[in-house]
């Protein structure tokens, strides 16, 4: 029984499904990657079970006060939004405390909810520096100028829709490629850990067998 318990402990470190980012997120990278960037106040929280034992989804309602990077359809998300968090997604950011935040978010086209992850900058407003705000404003001005130019140079409504879909698709493809790379990296690490764990277990069993034989020899 002791041996079985000891062998079991070798497998405990395999639970390492943590969010992994390519590097430390910056304001500029987060701005370029996110679909929506704004300052908002989380004023209400609600939870709902998602069907996996005690795991829950969280909805954080946000009152938007300033938008730095609007969605292409700038009629949306000007005043209110809902941030979605799932415990099943290791990279999701949980806005569990009420207060004001600088938020870099993606838009779920299926639900209309916003969601964010740990590979984007996320700060409470009291942690945002004047330099951060200055950089954000410059990025915002450049983005709005590009957006205005794009709309001005687009001749028809059909072309507008095509450009919008391409813009959304590029963002989603980039995010999915990053998630796929993270999953592959996690799987590689798990395989390595499992391989070395098996080696350690085999060595441990061999040592036990050798010791048992020596004990039998001594007893004889």
From TrEMBL:
Bilayer-crossing regions: 192-211
Cross-referenced SUPFAM superfamilies: TIMP-like
Keywords tagged on the record: Membrane, Signal, Transmembrane, Transmembrane helix
Residues of the signal peptide: 1-22
Family matches, as InterPro entries: TIMP-like_OB-fold (IPR008993)
Gene3D superfamilies: 2.40.50.120
Keyword Transmembrane helix: yes
Name of this protein: Tissue inhibitor of metalloproteinase
Organism whose genome encodes this protein: Chryseobacterium pennae
